[in-house]
């Protein structure tokens, strides 16, 4: 605040802000108070400038003119025979919070004060009347929170000034009223029989809320004004978008449009793009607060002028749980709307006006779409075809949707279903279908509601609406968006129509150029089989327009398609694709290799999925090129896998790190030492108390080698003449039925002069794995032949 001036009964008094307070101030023309405040000292002269004066107050029943002292203020005399003053007293500098749903009599919702951004002092209201925080025990689940907070101490008197109070909360199942202690807050009693509180963010602990006591409600002073945050004529708040998912996943950001001082007309934007209020509702809709506000009627046309629309608030899956205050709406030339937004009904918990962006296609989506040929979307396909270990179904929530799509089933055109699809069909537990009929050609782009079948019926929930267009040729395109939860868009098997295809007898032109010199490059780090498979699942190589030959890179280093399977392999999608056979040699020319896949959720299904074969060629310079094509459309999120191996220009037989870890032997157990926690880098030679030892080539029991699962080579060690070779690495679970229950990342191995081996060990991907050593292979080192190259290091672990 700054300096203030005012009038009482036509006589000048004081208040507001200015560089020169004598020329820039607000006015007050009212002096009725329960307790009048007065200066305990004379006013200054003009030449005194700004001075500080003590402020006293007296009660009409008191016997002392200075019954209490308020905060001191600064005063200045101004030309024209008047004075201005300044004060930072929180009794006059607070934000008003009118939240009747925080009363001790309210329950049933979970609204968590740790989600809000608290800053400064607050005065509490109950439908415009004064209310206080409670000073007595509050039951668990009261005040629409998990734990209701109350003051563990009495409210102060005016003469006490600012005091600090302990804040308590009780659990529902606890017998202690102060089982939980939150951060203390400051409180002050103010003239006019109200209090202000410096509320702070509680600790993140199971949904906490500051409670108000309905037994303390009192009428406000008639001169009291509510302090709100000024609004803006243009609102561009990303969190207002109906396409965010904060609500569904527990992230209530704490926005509350009752705290905004709405004034005039507003145009909505989302991240710079024009937006509008939704005139529909979505189950569990989130718009940055707890209750999402939407128009209860369609938008007007330009010719309609200004119209009035009802506003409703959604809560969970109840679209019209609340009724807010109506607003005015107008359509404007240029395809946008403006809204005369008003303060929402304070009875609604944390209401927030919603916005939705709808992009206008710059090109006809009938001519620019992505083909989506996924037979598992068929309305006759039950989800348990893709269900595994009780936790997996197909989910469009995981797809990065972008643009328009046309549906196919095995190459034949189809459309979304317009009628109820039973729960558990379309390869998912929660199928999505259109609630409204498809448009006609003359309708252009239309918006259609999307229903989701659930345990509570055919349209138990509503997902985000989508845009649809009918196209010449009797097909439709859809602008799909990410659903609110794990659900999938359905393709209606009853509406499949044939589409033109290439005659199978057609001979494709032969490539005349050498693919070793005429290729495209791919450098996608997420294709690496050594990446955490769950960091990226959004990629789908069926959506790529493959054309010609490709050379693979990983972070700028030359790579190749994997010949090996790794359990839980996704390579950026859901089904990691790899070659079912070795790479060719230079002398082999162009060869064809089968492509198989493993699913990201399965540890034991290597090769269980089969894609379309590809052509491969080895090139001078020790690299390969591939004629990649669209993978089989029946696979979920297929993605070609890549693997790179660091250059071995320095012979690893002379450049290794020595690992003497006898506790990794196959006859050791009892500890859990996990190799995924080490920083592996380069080549290693294995020892057992200073003697040579090798990795085992046969099955290792679970819990051996002081790990949960011991790792062993699924293939023989090489001979010296073989040079560097790659070997598959297996592991077995204690409860598993096989020696190779799962497959870890492959490693490279080399036989060295002196009857020993070196291994390029890498970080395993999961759950306490350990590289084992085989006690039956122990041999003495040869001191006359054991190399000690300039880069060799020896690390002994005991």
From TrEMBL:
Signal peptide: none
Keyword Signal: yes
Keyword Disulfide bond: yes
UMOD/GP2/OIT3-like D8C domain ranges (all copies): 7-85, 122-211, 266-347, 405-491, 550-634, 684-772
InterPro entries assigned: D8C_UMOD/GP2/OIT3-like
UniProt keyword list: Disulfide bond, Signal
UniProt-recorded name of the protein: UMOD/GP2/OIT3-like D8C domain-containing protein
Organism of origin: Triplophysa rosa (Cave loach)
């Amino acid at each position: 605040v700054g300096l203030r001036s005012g009038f009482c009964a036509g006589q000048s008094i004081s208040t507001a802000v200015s560089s020169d307070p004598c020329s820039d101030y607000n006015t007050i023309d009212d002096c009725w108070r329960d307790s009048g405040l007065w200066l305990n000292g004379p006013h200054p002269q003009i030449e005194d400038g700004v001075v500080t004066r003590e402020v006293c107050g007296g009660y009409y029943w008191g016997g002392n003119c200075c019954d209490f002292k308020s905060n001191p203020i600064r005063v200045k005399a101004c030309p024209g025979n008047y004075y201005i003053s300044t004060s930072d007293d929180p009794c006059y500098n607070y934000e008003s919070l009118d939240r009747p749903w925080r009363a001790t009599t309210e329950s049933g919702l979970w609204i968590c004060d740790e989600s809000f951004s608290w800053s400064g002092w607050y005065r509490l209201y109950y439908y415009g009347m004064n209310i206080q925080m409670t000073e007595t025990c509050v039951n668990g689940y009261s005040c629409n929170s998990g734990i209701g907070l109350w003051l563990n101490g009495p409210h102060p008197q005016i003469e006490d000034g600012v005091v600090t109070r302990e804040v308590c909360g009780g659990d529902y199942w606890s017998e202690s009223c102060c089982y939980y202690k939150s951060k203390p807050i400051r409180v002050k009693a103010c003239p006019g029989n109200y209090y202000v509180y410096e509320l702070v963010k509680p600790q993140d602990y199971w949904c906490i809320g500051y409670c108000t006591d309905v037994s303390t409600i009192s009428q406000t002073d008639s001169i009291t004004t509510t302090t709100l945050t000024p609004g803006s004529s243009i609102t561009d708040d990303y969190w207002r978008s109906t396409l965010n998912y904060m609500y569904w996943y527990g992230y209530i950001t704490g926005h509350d449009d009752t705290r905004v001082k709405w004034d005039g007309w507003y145009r909505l934007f989302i991240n710079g793009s024009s937006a509008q209020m939704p005139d529909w509702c979505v189950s569990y809709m989130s718009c940055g607060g707890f209750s999402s506000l939407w128009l209860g009627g369609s938008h007007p046309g330009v010719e309609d002028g200004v119209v009035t629309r009802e506003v409703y608030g959604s809560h969970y899956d109840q679209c019209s749980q609340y009724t807010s205050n109506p607003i005015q709406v107008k359509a404007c030339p240029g395809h946008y709307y403006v809204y005369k937004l008003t303060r929402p009904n304070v009875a609604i918990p944390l209401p927030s006006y919603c916005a939705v962006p709808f992009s206008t296609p710059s090109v006809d989506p009938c001519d620019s779409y992505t083909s989506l040929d996924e037979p598992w979307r068929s309305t006759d396909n039950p989800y348990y075809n893709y269900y595994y270990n009780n936790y997996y179904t197909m989910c469009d929530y995981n797809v990065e949707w972008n643009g328009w799509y046309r549906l196919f089933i095995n190459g034949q055109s189809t459309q979304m279903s317009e009628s109820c699809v039973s729960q558990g069909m379309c390869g998912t537990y929660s199928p999505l279908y259109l609630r409204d009929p498809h448009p006609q050609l003359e309708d252009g782009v239309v918006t259609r509601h999307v229903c989701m079948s659930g345990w509570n019926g055919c349209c138990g929930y509503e997902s985000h609406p989508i845009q649809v267009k009918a196209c010449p040729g009797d097909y439709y395109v859809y602008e799909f968006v990410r659903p609110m939860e794990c659900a999938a868009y359905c393709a209606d098997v009853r509406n499949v129509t044939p589409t033109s295809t290439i005659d199978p007898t057609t001979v494709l032109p032969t490539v005349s150029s050498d693919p070793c010199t005429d290729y495209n490059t791919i450098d996608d780090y997420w294709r690496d089989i050594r990446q955490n498979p769950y960091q990226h699942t959004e990629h789908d190589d069926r959506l790529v327009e493959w054309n010609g030959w490709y050379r693979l890179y990983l972070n700028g280093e030359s790579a190749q398609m994997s010949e090996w399977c790794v359990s839980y392999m996704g390579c950026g999608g859901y089904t990691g694709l790899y070659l079912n056979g070795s790479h060719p040699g230079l002398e082999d020319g162009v060869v064809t290799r089968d492509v198989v896949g493993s699913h990201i959720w399965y540890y034991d299904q290597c090769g269980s999925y089969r894609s379309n074969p590809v052509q491969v060629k080895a090139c001078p310079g020790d690299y390969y090129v591939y004629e990649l094509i669209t993978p089989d459309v029946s696979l979920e999120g297929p993605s070609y896998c890549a693997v790179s191996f660091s250059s071995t220009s320095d012979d690893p037989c002379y450049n290794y790190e020595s690992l003497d870890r006898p506790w990794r032997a196959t006859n050791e157990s009892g500890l859990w030492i996990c190799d995924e926690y080490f920083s592996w880098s380069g080549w290693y030679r294995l020892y057992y108390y200073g003697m040579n030892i090798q990795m085992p080539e046969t099955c290792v029991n679970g819990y051996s080698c002081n790990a949960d699962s011991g790792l062993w080579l699924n293939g023989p060690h090489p001979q010296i003449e073989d040079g560097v070779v790659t070997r598959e690495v297996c592991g077995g679970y204690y409860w598993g039925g096989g020696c190779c229950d799962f497959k870890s990342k492959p490693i490279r191995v080399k036989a060295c002069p002196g009857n020993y081996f070196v291994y390029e060990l890498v970080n395993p991907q999961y759950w306490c794995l350990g590289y084992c050593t085989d006690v039956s292979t122990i041999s003495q080192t040869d001191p006359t032949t054991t190399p000690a190259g300039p880069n060799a290091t020896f690390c002994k672990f005991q």
